[in-house]
Amino acid sequence: MTGLLVATLSTALAVWLWTGPEPAELRLHRLTARKGDPWRHSLRRLLTRPSPARRAQAWRRASIELCQALSAELSAGRTPGEALTRAVSAVDLPDPEALRPVLAAARDGGDVSRALVSAAPAQGGEGLVRLAACWDIGVSAGAGLAAVVERVGSALRTAQAHRQDVAAQLAGPRATARMLAALPALGLLMGAALGMRPLGFLLGGVPGLLCLTSGIALDVGGLWWTHRMAVRATES
């Protein structure tokens, strides 16, 4: 029974690592958040670090808020540099330090457009890239910057709504993938209940160990592949 418990826990751990919900991370954060313990603090930071997909979503939401705030500041009659500075300070950014060069360029009369492109993350930074293009059009060509930024913000909101709709439609397939990933452990439990002793074969020799290793690898690989397809569908 000890081997059966280990196999069940290994499968459950694999499912949690690849598709575990965010509340589990928050509970782990509360359990490990203890002052004066550097080891626990480092472990908490490592395990609660946002995934690339969640970080990209945070940057997309921040880009939409930035466009809205910038358009409002420009409509209030502020200069582009002042409007951008106030808009950045009013938005909850995933990484405020990333836009410090942008603020410096806006304050000192530098190349704001290039600073925005450089600050844009590889995933989720398309809003900042579009805002950089707006800045070139509005400041360099003399077009109405507020109207252009408002249109970009509207386009970003439409794209975000589409991604949310796709994510909602993928909730069912993701739940099915999690259920299928747990079926091997359920099969081991059923076999043990019927007296077939499946772990005697899996842990009793080289063929069984090969089957166990291959099964776990395929199970984890299937979860990873399903997760990647869902992420790509959401980002498309």
Automatic annotation (TrEMBL):
Residues 67-190 form the Type II secretion system protein GspF domain. The chain crosses the membrane at residues 201-225. Signal peptide: none annotated. It is a multi-pass membrane protein. GO terms for cellular component: plasma membrane. Its main location: membrane. Keywords: Cell membrane, Membrane, Transmembrane, Transmembrane helix. It is found in: Cell membrane. The keyword Cell membrane applies. This is Type II secretion system protein GspF domain-containing protein. It comes from Nonomuraea glycinis.
